[in-house]
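Appendix B, example 12.
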Amino acid sequence: MIRAVRPARKHLALLVVLVGMLLVQPLSGHRGVAVGAFFDAVVAGIAIYLPLIVFEERWERHVAVILVSIVIASNAAIYVLPRGGRLISEAVFHSAMATFLSFAIAVILHGIFRKSMIRFDDVVGAFCGYLLLGLVWANLYTLIYLILPGAFAVNPQVAWRLGHWHQRRALFEYLSFTTLMTLGYGDITPIGPPVYTLTWLEVMVGQFYMAVVVAQLVGLKLAQALTEKGQDRK
């Protein structure tokens, strides 16, 4: 039986983990197989722990554990399989990771939207959802690259990153977040139809997320303030 752990600042803990992963991966992942494997082991431990603090319903935790198990198994296979099998394992990893993160976003937002009172940790949770949205698309971009490498034009000065497992992930995370925020520096750009569609979908979903989630938070906060004001008058 999988039991949930519910710290008071669960979304803040998730935010710290996400930011730490995004900072450490591009700095350490390419410094050798041992360092990369250690980083992936730490990520695996975090991935096992997160379902216990983010997902509150039993069925949510079970689904999350199944997806996390696929992520961990495919990640481990990358280190032991030959090149052909490694590519398949990477594709499975990114597919499972995108599914897991999408599920996490849905659970986090559902938990926020059903609340009648908004706390600081709920606002942090909404921001975590935004970061997870960028990571979903980063995994989809990487998956497309594995299938169609010619779908991206990459500046030669950063092209070396595509040859490293962690650096490639970091590069497509960079592409995803710059696309999500409509920055588009141009050092890696889509040049094929599958990525064209993914790119404009990410921009639209990102804008929709900000508009709907922020509006929901503001509405709940106003309702909370009016309720508290009415109670003070009594």
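The chain has a mean pLDDT of 82. The longest strand covers residues 152-154.
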